[in-house]
């Protein structure tokens, strides 16, 4: 067999294997034979560390974003090399006030113990948490070389890139929202109610670098 014929045969074999990998399960009567079965053989979860948390989670926002991520290769058409993924990412972002940063100088109580002024740090946003039950890929388009790579990859069709991008967009949306404002308002209401139940009639809560009593 000539070298040209050998190369053609090798290409044909690759195409046959690719077609078999992509479409074999769709053949009538073969779905059950070549179907996959999932077994969970994971070991028990191990506790690595415990941390004390002094923050008050005062507000939580729910967000959803549609990510359209396209990766192209120079000088190659998309049908040969390139990917495009349409992904719906849904998750939450919490806004909290770190009460562990409040020191003795940040709390002023009058002699009659009827008036209290508290200075707290501004509310901040936590990291976005994607909800796997509400996040999913709508469509995936891959070139021939990318599909071939998936056959030999340890993590075919990985979605880490679109998940990271979805988390970034959700974090940006949270910054533009009023989550921190709502968190500070809720924290003020919580502390005011708590201190009034202890007998204080006047409660003032400030945030940031404002000096209590001013």
Structure commentary:
The chain is an alpha+beta fold and 214 residues long. 30% of the residues lie in helices and 29% in strands. It contains four helices and eight strands. It has helices at residues 3-23, 144-151, 160-176, 179-197, and strands at residues 55-72, 82-98, 107-109, 115-120, 124-125, 129-130, 136-142, 202-207. The strands form two sheets. Strands 1, 2, 5, 6 and 7 form a five-stranded antiparallel sheet that branches. Strand 3 and strand 4 (115-120) form a beta hairpin. The chain is elongated. 16% of the residues are buried. Residues 22-27, 143-149, 151-156 and 210-214 have low confidence and may be disordered.
